[in-house]
Amino acid sequence: xKIDIRPHPVFAAILLMAVSLLxxxxxxxxxxxxxxxxLSIVDEAIENGSIFTFSNHGEPYADKPPFYFWLAMxxxxxxxxxxxxxxxxxxxxxxxxxxxxxxxxxxxxxxxTSIRFSWLDRFAGAMMxxxxxxxxxxxxxxxxxxxxxxxxxxxxxxxxxMYRNTGNTAVEGLLLPFYIFMALFTKGxxxxxxxxxxxFFFLLISGKLKDAGxxxxxxxxxxxxxxxxxxxxxxxxEGGREYxxxxxxxxxxxxxxxxxxxxxxxxxxxxxxxxxxAPYSLLMIYTLFFIRGRASHSTDAGRLFCxxxxxxxxxxxxxxxxxxxxxxxIVPFISYYTVLSAKDAENTxxxxxxxxxxxxxxxxxGLAVFLFPLFSDMLPDGIVPSYVLEMASTSNAYFAAxxxxxxxxxxxxxxxxxxxxxxxxxxxxxSMLLAVLMVIPLVPKVNDYIGYRNMSAVAQxxxxxxxxxxxxxxxxxxxxxxxxxxxxxxxxxTAVDDFYYADISGCVLMAKTSALNENPEIxxxxxxxxxxKTGDYTVFVVPRASVQMLSGAPVSSLExx
Length: 561
Description:
Strand content: under 5%
Number of strands: 7
Distance between the termini: 54 Å
Strand order of the largest sheet: 4-3-5-7-6
Helix content: 55-70%
Radius of gyration: 26 Å
Mean pLDDT: 88
Shape: globular
Largest sheet: 5 strands, mixed
Low-confidence stretches: 546-561
C-alpha cells in the first residue's frame, strides 16, 4: 500500500514521533533529580490536602507554580497511582500542540503573503523542531517546561492574529492574557516576561509602539492581575505570608539577581545553544544571523520570531540562574524562522556547510558504533560506563548505527545534488527517530543505571523478607524522594561523616556502589553484609546492632555480591 504524506505532512511527523517516543515513555524510569522530586511533592500535597502550597519532606517548595502539580495530582486520583506514561504525555502532547501551532502560523503567513511552502517545507519544519536535542528530550520527561512553552507559543500566535486582524478580535483579546497567565502559572516569571517582551519590542521595531495598548492594555493586565490575585489569595490562606513572600520574591528576584541554584556566567547560553539546537545548530544560527531576506524584512512573523529569540536570549543571559532547559521557549521560534528564511540562501556554500557538517558527524557516529568493539579495550578504565560498553555491542545498537549512517548518506547526497535543504533536514530527523525505535528494547536495561525504581523493588523485597523496620540511603541524589516507590520515608545520608557516625542498624540500606568504593572507612561499615546489586547500586540488609564500624575489608569485595 502506497503511503502519501503530502496532504498531511505535520500529522505524519507527529505520528512518527509518537511511534518512536511513546514506547520510551512507557518503559523509561524516572530521573532522580527532578522527576522523582516532583512526584514526591505531589504525594505530600495530596497527603496534606494542599492545593496552592507545596513542600518536599516538610520543607516549603515555592520554586514552581501549582498548575503542573495539579495535573500530576489529577492523574494520580484517576489512575490510583503515578502512571508514568500518562505523566509523560503531559509534555509530549504539549510538544505536539506546539508543533501544530507553529505549522498553522506558517500557513497563515503563506495566505497573507506571496511566500508558498511545500509539503516538504512543512514536514521538515515539524521534524526539525521535534528532533532538536532539547525539544526532543523535554518532550518525554516529567517537567513543566514544555507545557509553559506551549502556552507561550499560543500567546504569541494569538497576538499575531490580533496584529494581523485575523480571527475573532474579542475572543483573541481574552485568550492572549489567559495564555500569558497560564505560562506564568505553569513555570514562573519567564512565562510572563517572554511574550510581553516579545510583543513590546516587536511593536517598537515595527514603529507601532503607540498601539501597545491594544495588546498589553488594561484588559490584558486586568485579566492577568485578576487571575494572579485569585492564585495569591489561595497561597495566602493556605501557606501564609512567609510562603507568599518566598514565592514572589525569593524564587523570582533572588534567582534573577543572585541565584542560589544553577548560577552561571553571562555567556553560558552562548555555549549551550550549540548542543541545545543540535543537530541543526549551524543551520539555525546561520539563518538567524546571516540571512537578510524576505522573512526578516518582509513578513511580520519573521520579525516577531527574530525578536522573541533575541529578547529572550538576552533576558535569560542576564538572569543569574541558568540551565540549558530554560532555552526551550526559544526553540520553536528559531526553528520556524529557519523555515521562513532558508530558501533565501538555498544552495549557497554556507548553507551546504551548515547541513553537511552535522550529517558528516552523524555518519561518523554511526561508523564509530561498528568500530567501537575494536578499540574499547584501549580506553582507560572508567572513562566509559560499563553499561554503555555492554549496550554498544548489542544488535540494537548496530541497527541504530546503520540507520544513522543511512540517514547521513541521504543527507550528504542531497547536498551534493543541490536538492532543497528540506531533504537533508528530513533525512537527518527521520534517521534520529528510527534510531530511537531501534534501541527501545535496551531501555529497561538502562533503567538500573538512570533511576531508582528497580533498586526500590529489590529493597522492598529484602525489607519484607528480613522484617527490617526502615530504609536508609547513602550517596544517592534525592534519596529521600524514593518514598514515591517505597511508600514510606527514607533516612538519607549524603555526607561521609554523617553516614559514618550514623546508627544504621536494623534497616535496608540502599547505596551507590561507587560512593562505597571511594571511602574504605565507609566500606568497612558494611563489610560482611550481603548485598544485592542493581546497576550502579547495592542494597544491603543491615541486622539490628551488628554493624561493624571499621573492619578494613576491601571495597572491591562488593563486586562479588
